[in-house]
Amino acid sequence: MECRVDDFRFKEVVNVFDGQRLGFVCDALIDIVAGRVLALIVPGRGKFFGLFGREPDYILPWDCIKRIGSDIVLVEVQGEYRRSRRHKHSWFTWQFPDNESK
Fold it and tell me: 50: which of 29, 33, 46, 77 fits an S-S bond (Cβ 3.0–4.6 Å)?
């Protein structure tokens, strides 16, 4: 079965250990030098209808993935999930590159 990284965005992630539905894949961590996928990233749940931000993202290592189906990804994570916050970029701050002459 062939699958592109973009196809993962439409797959729901479910933890088979506790049956929790984590959400849909939004990104992947890829080791470019070795040419392999390190982890899948699922966005955290929204706080109060998404008005007050989001919880940290789930980072699911490739070793935790048990089965990839046509519309679902089954993972097995026992205990706490590895979480991370997204880096936010400001729209109004822009810096000149170091090598640009003034």
Answer: 46
The encoded tokens of residue 19 equal 């049956």
What's the domain range around 27? 5-76
Count Cβ atoms within 10 A of the Cβ of residue 74 and give its class: 0-12 exposed, 13-18 middle, 19 or more buried.
Answer: middle
Q: Is the pTM of this model over 0.85?
A: no
* Residue 28 resides in a domain: yes
Q: Which residue has the tokens 């980072």?
A: 59
36-72 pLDDT, tens digit each: 888 888 888 777 766 677 778 888 999 999 999 888 9
Residue 37, domain CATH? 2.30.30.240
